[in-house]
TrEMBL record:
CDD domains: HisKA. Transmembrane segments: none annotated. Coiled coil: none annotated. This is histidine kinase.
């Protein structure tokens, strides 16, 4: 071998030994110029001739024996169509990532440098991470579904308990002894506290990213609102509030019944809670047919304390309550309107708030009758 070629091979080998990855330098004649010890160990080439001038085919065959049938081998080491970066999986479970780096001098291809690194542990960690993410996602979905289901099941009995508390208390019920009044106040106070907890749980279940998958079906809006206002009637009557409702018949809407029912119930609860005795809560619903589509317009209006205009956008934010609600010591967590807004948006609807402090509040929902677009659509 000429002196200059030997010197070139020696220099190349010294350079490759300084490379942390396994490295192979192949000349334009498809012969080995240099191989570092890292590649010999990675590719299990201890019993293969890797000396300069050896045909690269022998190396490719030695590697191919360690690969599953049909896998890409190193037979294409010097072929231009071989991908610049590839992963090679060995029969023993190891995964090597290879990189092809053409070497050109003065516009002429003089060789190819191959680099290889063991990424087995990296791929294992990535696989474990994906598995853990899937597991956590499934647990979050199950927790969210359980929370929503539990919240829905608790809301009705709590509303019943509070309604009967109002019916038992004077002037609706008979006069109570001091002990009975104390017992009733305790029941009412703890039921209200539980109701606040349910509101928090419900909002947690419907928060962005954890909302359980919606189940859409045809919903008779007038019938749903009629039932909700009927359930609320005893409580409103006991509080001395006039409950007026007008529900026109109309086409069914595609909606998640459970989530929509919870949102409407929250609006009705708020209207009664923030209206003093002698006030009025008016619930109306009528279908609309406009050039951009059909739907339902639902209004829940009250003559209560109202919401200051400067807070009418902010109250849709989690845990935000209007200052007059805080001053009046009205129970609540500031989650109700936020959860209502999220539900309305989920149904491709719109929500608007009207009124002002001391002028009552009217919340108007516009819900399309068609099936909502999939998440992320458009």
């Amino acid at each position: 071998m000429p002196l200059n070629l030997r010197l070139t091979a020696q220099v190349a080998e010294a350079l490759l030994d300084a490379v942390p990855e396994g490295a192979l330098l192949v000349g334009a004649d498809n012969q080995v110029v240099a191989v570092n010890q890292q590649l010999v160990e990675l590719a299990r080439l201890q019993d293969v001739d890797t000396s300069p001038g050896t045909s690269v085919g022998a190396l490719a065959k030695a590697v191919a024996k360690q690969l599953p049938a049909g896998s890409t081998s190193l037979r294409q080491l010097n072929r231009r169509q071989f991908p610049r970066t590839a992963e090679v999986r060995f029969l023993d479970g190891r995964v090597l990532r290879t990189n092809r780096r053409p070497i050109d001098v003065a516009g002429e291809r003089v060789g190819v440098l191959w680099l290889a690194e063991d990424i087995t542990e990296q791929r294992r960690r990535e696989h474990d991470l994906r598995r853990h993410v899937r597991t956590l996602g499934e647990l979050a979905r199950e927790r969210s579904e359980f929370t929503a289901r539990a919240s829905h099941e608790l809301r009705t009995p709590l509303a019943t308990i509070l309604s009967f508390c109002e019916l038992l208390a004077p002037p609706s019920g008979d006069p109570l002894s001091a002990a009975q009044a104390t017992y009733l106040a305790t029941i009412r106070r703890n039921a209200q506290r539980m109701q606040e907890m349910v509101d928090g749980l419900l909002h947690a279940a419907t928060a962005a990213g954890t909302r359980p998958e919606a189940t859409y079906a045809r919903v008779d809006m007038a019938r749903l609102l009629g039932r909700l206002t009927g359930d609320l009637q005893p409580r409103a009557q006991a509080a001395g509030i006039f409950l007026v409702h007008a529900h026109e018949p109309g086409p069914p809407a595609f909606a998640d019944r459970s989530q929509l029912e919870n949102a409407l119930a929250a609006l009705l609860d708020n209207a009664v809670k923030f209206t003093p005795p002698g006030g009025t809560v008016t619930v109306s619903a009528h279908p609309y047919d406009e050039p951009d589509g059909t739907g339902w317009e639902i209004s829940v209006a009250d003559t209560g304390i109202g919401i200051p205009k400067e807070f009418q956008e902010e109250v849709f934010t989690e845990f935000v309550r209007a200052p007059n609600a805080r001053r009046g010591a009205y129970p609540g967590t500031g989650l109700g309107l936020s959860a209502v807004r999220d539900t309305v948006r989920m149904h491709d609807g719109h929500i608007a708030l009207h009124g002002g402090e001391g002028d009552g509040t009217a919340v108007v929902l516009r819900l399309p009758t068609g099936r909502p677009a999939p998440a992320g659509h458009g």
